[in-house]
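re: that complex we talked abt at group meeting.

here r the seqs, copy pasted straight from the sheet so there may be weird spacing, ignore it
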Amino acid sequence: SSELTQDPAVSVALGQTVRITCQGDSLRSYYASWYQQKPGQAPVLVIYGKNNRPSGIPDRFSGSSSGNTASLTITGAQAEDEADYYCNSRDSSGNRLFGGGTKLTVL
Amino acid sequence: QVQLQESGPGLVKPSQTLSLTCTVSGGSISSGDYYWSWIRQPPGKGLEWIGYIYYSGSTYYNPSLKSRVTISVDTSKNQFSLKLSSVTAADTAVYYCAREGNYYDSSGYWGWYFDYWGQGTLVTVSS
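got the structure back, here u go
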């Protein structure tokens, strides 16, 4: 199916590690990209390709993929990482897909 | 530094056509390395991709919106535009324009990503 599925909400204790996942058939064929969105702001690209971070993104953000699941891992979560996170990919027809988003709470 | 800026009316009446323009600075739409997309986000909801245009004018639209969407490009002004016809309250959203690049590695996989986004503009559909 042409959908990407994310858990609606995840929480993590300050300084701990959290994994946010994204599932979809298209991820068997294409890499996901990941975006962080804070309230009232445009999304920001944090991970693309196999595990690439744009300039300015802290190295505590990393990406991985296995089968139909892509994951965004934050190692040593900080208070400023509290945000919504979206995965994105495409299907075989060229349609671009977004996951429903995961709200990350840093406790 | 590439920058994108959306512009257009913030209020559109039901059944009318929503029109927005994205002005790109710091880079050329005609470079050929990127696609140029529109993405929207209803209040309190997730992101929805609307469609893209390439500098040559080729387009691809989200099948769920295809019958109502037109995206065009003006390379002389370094702008691309969105028209969405027959709008309803369900089209109320923040509309973003974004640049899309692609990635290919030795394992044979492709990936696409939106690396630059406009700040977004809220369009409300209401009479």
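couple things i noticed - Chain A has a mean pLDDT of 96. The radius of gyration of chain A is 13 Å.
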